[in-house]
Design brief:
By secondary structure, this protein is of the alpha+beta class. About 45% of the residues lie in helices and about 10% in strands. It binds FE2/S2 (inorganic) cluster. FE2/S2 (inorganic) cluster binds next to helix 5.
Length: about 160
């Protein structure tokens, strides 16, 4: 589980103030905020701009230029489901369909909250597909029920 605290404007302000003395402090601030909260809330933009005497557009520009900054809270768990060729041959698209139809889980739908399922292309577990990666653990022969259970319960062996 990611386990990040909810965005807190006072904590964000403290983090920003603690780094304001650095040369080129924008990126260290953004990284520190993402480390603390799992993402950079849009509310950070005016705080950083003010602390560094930049325009808000400049801060926005830094966030969007570097693709590793997230601007929305992440789900507590992300299940990565392989949809590359070998796993397709072993039925991963049926898993995707069943997830939507039977469990109301839409793969690759942007969502915050408890869990999300994202497409990846090959996890190196091709013979045992459909494959999934959850909390660093590689799973083989997954079906929709197992993925849905992972999304609900937060344990790879549920
Ligand atoms: S194609 Fe799915 S693990 Fe390789």
């Amino acid at each position: 589980m990611a386990g990040y605290p909810a965005w807190d404007q006072d904590s964000a302000r403290t983090i920003i103030a603690g780094l304001a003395h650095l040369e080129g402090a924008t990126l260290p601030m953004l990284h520190a905020l993402q480390d603390a909260f799992g993402y950079v809330d849009p509310q950070a933009v005016p705080l950083i701009a003010e602390a560094l005497n930049l325009s808000r557009a400049e801060v926005h520009g830094a966030i969007s230029f570097y693709h590793d900054f997230r601007t929305a809270p992440q789900p507590a768990r992300i299940v990565r489901l392989c949809r590359a060729e070998a796993c397709q041959a072993l039925g991963c698209e049926a898993v995707v369909d069943d997830l939507a139809r039977e469990h109301g889980i839409v793969v690759d739908a942007a969502q915050a909250g408890d869990a999300a399922v994202e497409t990846v292309y090959c996890l190196g577990n091709c013979a045992l597909g459909p494959s999934a990666l959850v909390d660093g653990e590689l799973l083989g022969r997954v079906d929709a029920a197992r993925i849905a259970a992972l999304c609900r319960h937060g344990r790879a062996h549920s």
